[in-house]
Each structure stands twice: as C-alpha cells, then as structure tokens.
Amino acid sequence: MNRFPNSLQVELQGNRRTWRLLALFSYLAPGFGAITVPPDFETDFASVRPVRTAGVFAVLIGLVLTLFVPWVGSLLAAFGLAALLLYAAVVSYGQEAAVIHDYLYATGLLPRLLADRVFRDALRSSGHARWRAGLMWAGVRLGGRSRFKKG
What we know:
mainly alpha, 5 helices
C-alpha cells in the first residue's frame, strides 16, 4: 500500500532554502490516519545544513590547531569529518517524510514524540533503510526541540 497517495509537488522559493507546496500532500500514518498538508505550506525538508557547517568549521579549525596542539587539532578534525559523513548519509533523503514532519512540528497537531515517530515510519514507508531512518529520527530527537510548536 502506498502511504503517500499524492505526489509531492514543490517549488523552490527565492531564498533558496525553503520550498513551497503547490498541491495538497498527504501521508496515511498507521495509527493516526491521514495527515494532510495544505498547498502553500513551506518546508526546508530535512534541516541538516548545520551539521555540514559544523563539520567544515571543525575540520578547518582542527587542521590549524594541529600545528599548535596536535592531539586537540586531530580530535577536532576527526569530529568534523564524522559530522561531514553524517551529513552525507542523510542529505537529500526523505523529502516526503520531511514535509509531513515539518507540518506536524509547525502545527503541533501531535505531541513531539509522536510527530517524530510518524517521521521515522514515513521514512520506512518510503523505502529508506532502517539505519538511515533511525539516524534521521535520532537527529530530530536530539535537535528538533526548538523548532516544535506546541499545539
């Protein structure tokens, strides 16, 4: 069963960071029913840009620090490389699930824990590997609190 009955139709906004839905988009969530996102809703899909930025800065600063305090610089550079690998593992995956998740966060229709569970289930319903869905779920659990609007 296809849990996404409508195809995702979006257009890039002028700021090059957000996308606007051109048509109604829905997800049939097990245990919750249809979650419908209206046209004109804006999303940034999966917000992983800070992971990339942190990785780049950590690598650059780490390389400079290796000249003065080698063990600190190496540790920081390794952290930066790990962040960049994490970024590569999740960037551009799960746009459909991310739209549903962004909508649930923006409206507060479900408690945060349930919204995150719907996100993980939507990723799995889209055919994404269990490890990738788990990694993305962990990311929203760790970094999503400030973006959640309580209903």
